[in-house]
Specification:
mainly alpha
């Protein structure tokens, strides 16, 4: 029974996170779309995709102090990763858990390509960032589990 509560809690947390992220992106991109109403839906989707790649690249650049050459090399890797994730996210035949697993696999598959571009110091910082993210996810999962445990 505890596994059912754990799974339900994780599914709820994932759905909530996804809906909040989507709502935030929608509100920020709607203002951009209103600024250029002549854009076709395909252009709009492409721009939103580029914006996410740009945001991730900017964040990585700030965290790892990337050079311009490294940014140029990372951009197509990140774009490919986001493109694959978008396809998985749109696959109605998959459950949320399956989508999350596939997206994690995509992310992990691109990791060696990213690391090959980084200096040893940047690789160390990148590994540290991954561990910190894993710890945060663990804390969030523990919090969700404790909130959804039945009273004893």
């Amino acid at each position: 029974m505890r596994k059912v509560y754990t799974f339900a809690g994780l599914t709820f947390a994932l759905a909530l996170t996804f809906s909040l992220t989507t709502a935030a992106q929608t509100s920020s991109t709607e203002s951009k779309r209103q600024a250029s109403p002549e854009q076709s839906p395909a252009d709009y989707a492409g721009n939103m995709h580029r914006d996410r790649v740009g945001e991730r690249l900017k964040w990585l650049s700030q965290q790892l102090n990337l050079t311009e050459d490294q940014k140029k090399q990372l951009k197509p890797i990140l774009a490919g990763e986001f493109k694959q994730m978008r396809v998985v996210g749109a696959d109605a035949s998959l459950t949320q858990e399956q989508k999350r697993e596939k997206m994690m696999q995509i992310h992990e598959a691109s990791r060696p390509q990213v690391q090959a571009i980084l200096t040893p110091e940047q690789q160390q910082k990148f590994a540290q960032m991954k561990e910190e993210a894993k710890e945060r996810r663990g804390e969030e999962k523990d919090k969700v589990q404790s909130e959804h445990q039945p009273p004893q």
